[in-house]
Amino acid sequence: MLAPEALTYVIHRYPAHLIDRVTLADGRSITLRPVLPQDQAMARSFVRQLSPESRYARFFAGFPELSQSMATYLTQVDYTRHLGLIAETVDDDCEVQIGEARYVVADDAGGAEFAVAVDDQWQGSGVGAKLMDALERAARGAGISHLYGDVLAINRKARAFFERRGFICETNPADATLLRATLVL
Description:
Layout: E1 20-23, E2 29-34, H1 40-49, H2 52-59, H3 68-75, E3 82-91, E4 94-105, E5 111-118, H4 127-141, E6 146-152, H5 156-164, E7 168-172, E8 175-184
């Protein structure tokens, strides 16, 4: 689930090269960029607006909104061991987060745990694919050997999405209600 840990926040150089403006198949344009500490309010709003099912699929918990510590964890990343990317659009001259993808480098053989979520109204539009494309490129550029993440076994849509992307989905040996999706980079 990528839970917060007791970390000292040290920001490295902001990876501006990861900022990208992309066009979805339906013609809408969105911006993909690394998350910033000042995105906390937007991140909290994003999670609050997810349906209970989407929130549970992302966090494996039924909370209605992010705690302050979780919001801090998700927005104060170091861009080396923990990279968070957000997808945003502009609505009434305000930036609105519509998706997020991230990885956290594990202490094992060069892998990183990943997670992704897309606003319910934007699911199926290609936002998730664009976020994963950017996350996979960033992980390769950082020398990460593989990405892995857990998906609810009953989430057939997510399983199909990851399998189309070349991930191998297997039952998580620690919890049969989860699938472990793994992609060798």
